[in-house]
Amino acid sequence: MKIKRSVVILMVITAVICLCACGGDKKKNASITSNWRFVQSTVNGKTNTRDDFSLIDEKKLPAFKCSDGKTCVFSLNGKSHKGYVSEKDGIYLISFDDTDRTMQAVIEDKLMTLTNDKGTLAIIFAAE
Fold first, then answer.
1. pLDDT for residue 22
2. Which of 124, 69, 72 is nearest to 97 (CA)?
3. What pLDDT score was predicted for residue 7?
4. What are the boundaries of each domain within the chain?
5. So what's the pLDDT on residue 35?
6. What is the Cα–Cα distance from 92 to 74, expressed in whole angstroms?
7. Would you say 126 and 39 are in contact if contact means Cβ atoms under 8 Å apart?
8. pLDDT for res 110
């Protein structure tokens, strides 16, 4: 009888562990390699949304593309900057060919926030 009871307890514990491992309704973060669409930018504390730029040529809106998870292109005011992506603990560090400045990207759910190293610029992109 003790063996049956031990086997039943072991099976119940195994079932509980399996259910805990499969549970949760967590939203998966988008990948850095997603297609990103500009949502809003904050420069020196002033925030503008995509709608605020409706009269500006689409090519001048901030843009971010990363197809392989290693290299990217960040565009601002119509000028493109080739960059290199590294990741540590869910934070992406982006360095560029044409400047010694860096940017940091954090992805939560389907939004990526890209900030410069001085903290004066924050751009939010949405995964498409």
1. 52
2. 72
3. 42
4. 36-127
5. 86
6. 14
7. yes
8. 92
27 Cβ contact list (under 8 Å, min separation 6): 109, 110
Query: Residue 63: which of 2, 19, 124 has the closest Cα?
Result: 124
Q: Would you say 41 and 121 are in contact if contact means Cβ atoms under 8 Å apart?
A: yes
The whole-angstrom separation of Cα 109 and Cα 106 is 10
What residues contact 81, with CB distance under 8 A and at least 6 apart?
73, 74, 75, 96, 97, 98, 99
Class of domain 36-127: mainly beta
User: Which candidate, 57, 60, 64, 54, places its Cα nearest to that of 122?
Assistant: 64
Return averaged pLDDT per consecutive 10 residues of the chain, 128 residues in all: 52 49 50 91 93 80 92 90 93 92 93 93 93
